[in-house]
Structures are given as C-alpha cells and as structure tokens.
Design brief:
heterodimer; A: 272 residues; 3 helical TM bundles of succinate and fumarate reductases; 2 strands; B: alpha+beta; Ubiquitin-like (UB roll); 2 domains; 5-stranded mixed β-sheet; two-stranded antiparallel sheet
Chain lengths: 272, 278
C-alpha cells in the first residue's frame, strides 16, 4: 500500500490529467457515437432507403451493428479504446472521489450539488457500465432476466428482449432492468456534460467567471442533446416488438432492405 | 446572579438570544454542547449593535449555562473586529463566516432566537471555538508565498506594473487566510498530522496566493517552484470544482478564476517540462 501511494504521488499530475483526458477522449467521444447508433432505433426512419414495410429503426440499427462488427481487429479497439480507458477512469475516479467529503447539507449551492452528483453518477455509472457490458457483450446471461443472449446478428430483437425481460414483452424484472438503463444512461450523460465543464477549468481553458459560465451553457446544451439521444435509445428498445425487429433483421441480412447513406448517395450522384 | 432570573429583569429594548456552543477543553479532548441565554440590546436602544463577539464576551463575564451551572468562559480567537484579520472565523448556524461581522440584529433579530456556534471543522481545535490554522500557514510557505527581494545589494527599483495588473492583484491581496474557503470545500479535509501536510490538498486560498505571487513582476522569479508544488500531490489538480470557496469568501476574491488560472499555468509548466526538460 505504501508503495502504491508513492507511485500515485510520483505521477500525481500525469495521472490526474490522464484521468481527465480519458473521460473526454476516448470515453466521451465513444459515448456520443454509441448513443447516436443506439438512438437510430427511433431515428432510423430519417434514413433514405427502401424499408419494404419493415421496422426502419430495427433495420437501421442492425445495419449499423453489422458495420461495427465488420471493423478489423474490433477486439483490440474494444480493449484498448474502451475497456482499459473506462477501467482506468473508473478506478482512479472512485479513488479520487473518496478523497473528498460532500457537504451539500450545509452548503446548498448549485455547484456543490453538481460536485456531489458527479461522484454519485460515477459510482452508479460504473455499476451500470459493468452490468451493460457483462450482460450484452460478455454474455453473462445469468444476470439477464429471461436469460436472453445478445447477438450482433439479431442486434435489435435480442437487445429488446434483454431490456424487456422476455421475447414477448415486459416482465417484472424487465421493468427493473429498463429503469436501471434509464437511470444509468441519464447519470452518465450528466457525468459527461458536467465533466466537460470541470475539465475546462482543470486544464485552464476557462479562467474568467464569464468564460466558465459561457462554457457551462455549451456543456448544458450538449448534455440536453445527448440526453435526448440516450432516452430515445432506451425508450426505443423498451417499446420495440421482438417479432417485428426479427423480421427487419432478417430482411437486412438478405439484402432485401437497402439503406442508403448520405455518402453513398453522393457516390451514386458522381457516377451518374 | 442566576441566569434563570435574568429574563424577568430585562429592559424593554432587550431580547434574549440562546447560544448553542460546541465546546472542547483542549486538543484531542471530546466535545460537548453548552447553552447560554444572552441578553441582547436592540440597536434602536442607541448602544450600537451586538455581534457574536460581544455576546461571547458577555458569556465570558457570566459563564453560566441555561441549567444554571457555572462553567468555564468560552475560548475564542479574534483580532481586528472589522472582518480584515480572519482570526474570529467560526461556523455559525452551519455556515462558516467571521463572527465579528455577524450582527445579532440580522442573525437573531427576535426574542428567543437561537445561534449555534461551532469551531471550524477542518482545523484542529485548540480550545472551544479557537482553532489552530498552522497548516494554512505551512501551505503558504510551501508555495513560497512571498516576493524574493532579500539580498546583499540594492536591487534598484522593481519592474513597472500596469494599473490593470495592480487592480487584479489588489483583489487577490485581500485574502486574510481566514479559512472560510477551506471549511466550505468538500476536498479539503481535517489533517491533524503535520507529516501529512506536504501532500494534503492546499485549498483555494493558497492556490489563489500562488496566482497572486506569480503575477507579481518580481515574485514571478519563484513561479516554477510554486508550480512544482501546484502540480504535485495536494496541488491545484486535487480541486473538485464544487466552487463553494468563491461563494463563502467574505472578501469576494475570485477564487475559482485563480483555480482556472493556476490550472492553466500548471498545464503549460508540465508540457514545457515534458518537451524541454527541467
């Protein structure tokens, strides 16, 4: 323990700044892409494409997941781009959080509430991320009500079943899981938005009170936008019909549904 | 004279304020609560307004609890009595502030009002409301909170400063090391062990003094040493940005701006060090 402490003290500044940086890049950037992908369950319909009567959200989501799973060396991207940075940010974050002692009971300032919530959201966020990754990515199906195993081949339908608790709609435990998702993503979006605000002070980007206030509005706006994506995703999957999603996924795989992205349309335009 | 009978004999312009005081006989001793009823004259009586210090002086002269038990006078620290020395800082009704500028007419305007007094919780208690702020002064030494002008020869006139710089520094110079910002800070915690002081968080006051002396044309000479401390354990990066400091600062010093500024200075200091060596 004594040795541990001296390592932390020797690299105090570097670890503090890497902790701050990791929260923005890669974790913050990843969260933006992750939520955008997942929100496509609701916003997928705005894609231009022929959905042939299938659920446009489920088809788009399956299309996106198919693309991500086609990335080369995905496991390396996951380990070094996501799991290790998240573990680093979490372990150090929890350690740093324990060095403080919240006092909102006496000093009820808005900033102090955010300080406290930043730490609470960190604690619950770590648990949520662990549950989320362990159940869906590492297939710890004993933690999933109904035992659904998430599959990239059936990305939307199995996710809906895992969140709802069964393939045929909500079960009691499914409601608990769905609410935990709602809580988890909301706290994590807050954690990111507030973390962006504090990081700017930590690194010395915002110094004057006005600058801190202005950047605060930017972070709040980013938080509201991310929150909309996060809630869209959770509500979208919580209300998704398993069979309907199944049909969309099958059609996407057989190429019966075409999703035309902006860049593909541009390419097509050039060829013509 | 018994405090029980005081209420009956009080003049028309006098009200009774009950003080709940957290007491402690000495370092490491357990604390206990004692209550005192203090007669307070209304400011309309023409004798000036009472403050917490004058009430503590009354208790010192009449150290009898509401139960009628004689006790020792309550110890407290004070100096200037005009909110510029910081010595009389304590926790009044749960909030840290100077007791000299806590007027009874505003904090206990009515008969029967209660006032709770506690010593600051982030410093070791010497006795009752009197705490030992040595750690704060130790931290000011850590960051070399001075301008190095001692030498064997005349250094001549100092560099010129613009009025803008003077104004900015004047505001920072108003810090009286009272400890309010530290008491309200969730990251600054009690550390009675002197051996731990060199890596415990320094808090807003000391970060702001770092900025103050680094802005001074001659004080700048020690900027690197100050930034070494600020980027080490207990330095500015231990700040959690709750920003209570700036809210409770009695001198309205822009402490959070100082934290942002020293954050920037340490960032640049460390990046320079990374690429250019020490």
């Amino acid at each position: 323990m004594a040795q541990n402490k001296s390592f932390l003290e020797k690299h105090h500044f570097l670890l503090r700044r890497l902790h701050s940086l990791a929260g923005v890049v890669p974790i913050g950037v990843f969260l933006l892409f992750h939520l955008t992908t997942n929100a496509s369950i609701v916003w997928g319909a705005i894609n231009k494409g022929k959905f042939e009567g299938v659920h446009p959200g489920a088809a788009t989501f399956q299309h996106e997941v198919g693309f991500i799973h086609s990335l080369p060396a995905l496991i390396l991207i996951e380990i070094f781009g996501l799991w290790l940075p998240i573990a680093f940010h979490s372990v150090l974050g929890v350690y740093y959080a324990t060095t403080g002692k919240n006092n909102v009971a006496h000093y009820k300032y808005q900033g102090n509430w955010r300080y406290t919530l930043q730490r609470i959201s960190g604690y619950i966020g770590v648990l949520f991320i662990f549950y989320h990754v362990a159940t869906l990515r590492w297939h710890w199906t004993f933690l999933v009500p109904g035992g659904t195993k998430w599959s990239g081949e059936w990305a939307a339908s199995t996710l809906a079943a895992a969140i709802q608790g069964s393939e045929s709609g909500f079960t009691a435990m499914g409601v608990v899981v769905a609410l935990f998702y709602m809580l988890g993503v909301s706290l994590l979006v807050f954690h990111l938005a507030n973390g962006l605000w504090t990081a700017a002070i930590t690194w010395g980007l915002t110094i004057s009170e006005q600058a801190q206030k202005r950047w605060g509005y930017v972070c709040a706006a980013a938080g509201v936008g991310l929150m909309a994506l996060a809630w869209s995703a959770v509500i979208g999957f919580a209300t998704l019909d398993y069979e309907e999603a199944r049909l969309a996924e099958e059609r996407v795989r057989h190429g019966e549904v075409t999703i035309v992205t902006e860049s593909q349309r541009a390419d097509a335009g050039e060829r013509e | 004279m018994s405090s029980k009978n005081d209420a009956k004999g009080k003049a028309a312009n006098t009200r009774t304020v009950r003080f709940n005081i957290k007491r402690c006989d000495g370092p490491g001793q357990p604390s206990r609560w004692e209550r005192f009823d203090v007669p307070v004259q209304s400011s309309s009586a023409g004798s000036g307004s009472a403050n917490v210090i004058s009430c503590l002086q009354w208790i010192a002269a009449n150290p009898v609890t509401i139960e009628g038990r004689k006790t020792t006078p309550v110890s407290f620290d004070c100096g200037c009595l005009e909110e510029v020395c910081g010595a009389c800082t304590m926790v009044i009704n749960g909030q840290v502030r100077q007791s000299c500028s806590c007027l009874m007419d505003s904090c206990a305007p009515n008969d029967g009002d209660e006032v709770t007094l506690e010593p600051m919780s982030k410093f070791p208690v010497n006795r009752d409301l009197f705490v030992d702020r040595s750690r704060l002064f130790n931290d000011l030494e850590r960051i070399r909170g001075w301008v190095p002008i001692d030498g064997t020869y005349d250094l001549g006139a100092g560099p010129r400063e613009t009025p803008e710089q003077q104004q900015q520094r004047y505001k920072l110079s108003e810090c009286m090391s009272c400890g309010c910002c530290l008491e309200a800070c969730p990251q600054y915690t009690l550390e009675p062990d002197e051996k731990e002081w060199d890596h415990a968080f320094v808090g807003a006051a000391v970060i702001s003094q770092t900025r103050y002396f680094n802005m001074h044309a001659t004080g700048k000479e020690l900027a690197k040493q100050r930034l070494d401390v600020m980027s080490g354990p207990g330095g500015v990066s231990d700040c959690g940005n709750a920003q209570n400091c700036v809210k409770v600062c009695p001198k309205e010093i822009p402490l959070t701006e100082s934290i942002g500024s020293v954050g920037r200075q340490t960032t640049i200091h460390k990046i320079r060090e990374f690429f250019m060596g020490r």
